Amino acid sequence: MSNLDRQAVPSVCGGRGFVVAEPVRELLSPRRVRLGESTEVRRLLPNLGRRMVGAWAFVDHYGPDDIADEPGMQVPPHPHMGLQTVSWLHDGEVLHRDSTGSLQTIRPRELGLMTSGRAISHSEESPRPHARFLHGAQLWVALPDAHRHTDPRFEHHATLPTVTAPGLTGTVVLGTLDGATSPGTTYTPLVGADLTLTAGADVRVPLDPDFEYAVLSMSGETHVDDVPLVPGSMLYLGCGRTELPLRAGSDASVMLLGGEPFEEELVMWWNFIGRNQDEITQAREDWMTGSRFGDVKGYDGGRLDAPELPPVPLKPRGRVR
To answer: Please, which domain of life does this record's source organism belong to (predicted)?
Structure first.
């Protein structure tokens, strides 16, 4: 998914300087962003109060939206570099096309994982016809320097491993949780899991104390470490935890995101993650002149133009709160 904000603001992130080395409860409020004609997303990362969680650098939550009489998601071809996109649905379908030739319909609880590497372009749209409701999350994972120039690729995993406890079923989207490992390719130690809770569930999820974590509420009434979360909000939890208490006041679902704090300093602007101003400037020029990022075949419409670069220099400064 693209960052469609036409006033794209650079985010400086990465580095360990502002990682909270102990458990905390830091509630992150979303910023509402229009995505096409009929979809509004709640953007949790990057946030005024928190830029990254491990290598997770971008989190949008959207829906549930009734799109029975709407076009639904319509994101024209746009570029990415230096990151992975993670498409995760609870309701609806998304048709993915990219410049490697991939064409895939992603359905609920299936992993669509695109590694941009040095350069890729893609589009996302609700199929015609499509389901009545659209509900999901779109997330980005920053690639470390050793792998950010890798060849672009797309993975689709319809079956993912699960973990269970009384009142809880967890799907491991990326990384490893409680001994279960996703088939999705990762480049840094991290975890992403969808945790479905039944009403009245009271469980403790095992965590890695070396990871920092956050929990995104997808639906229902949940208490995360005794903090109530409403859908579309996220709680940053810091490091140093060996387990996470979860309680559900109704049937509910949350996403657990975590990973080793990302050491490298980054510049994230529009749909690019780089290391300095020159890389971002070159990526924008390459996209606008039609080189490097390839073509998306079969999308009915034009591609997105990049916004103008800001007048101030883009500088990587590590984690900024």
So the answer is: Bacteria
The CA-CA-CA angle for residues 84, 41, 69, to 5°, reads 115
Position of tokens 């300095």?
276
Q: For residues 108 and 90, is the Cβ–Cβ distance under 8 A?
A: yes
Q: Can you give the pLDDT at residue 40?
A: 84
Task: Give the per-residue pLDDT at 129.
Answer: 93
Question: Which structure tokens are listed for 24?
Answer: 């905390």
> What radius of gyration do the chain's Cα atoms show?
18
Give the C-alpha separation, 205 to 58, whole Å: 24
314 secondary structure, DSSP code:
P
Q: How many CB atoms lie within 10 A of CB 158?
A: 10
26-53 pLDDT, tens digit per residue, is 999 899 988 766 678 999 999 987 899 9
Q: How many CB atoms are located within 10 Å of the residue 73 CB?
A: 28
CB-based contact 184:173 (threshold 8 Å): yes
- For 178, the domain range is 20-259
Phi, psi of 268 (to 5 degrees): -115, 120
How much is the pTM? 0.92
* DSSP 8-state code for residue 48: T
Is there a contact between 13 and 268 (Cβ–Cβ < 8 Å)?
A: yes
- Count CB-CB contacts under 10 A for residue 313: 10
Residue 164 lies in a domain: yes
According to DSSP H, which parts of the chain are helical?
Answer: 277-288
Residue 7 lies in a domain: no
CATH number at residue 203: 2.60.120.10
- Could you give the CA distance from residue 65 to residue 68 in angstroms, rounded to a whole number? 9
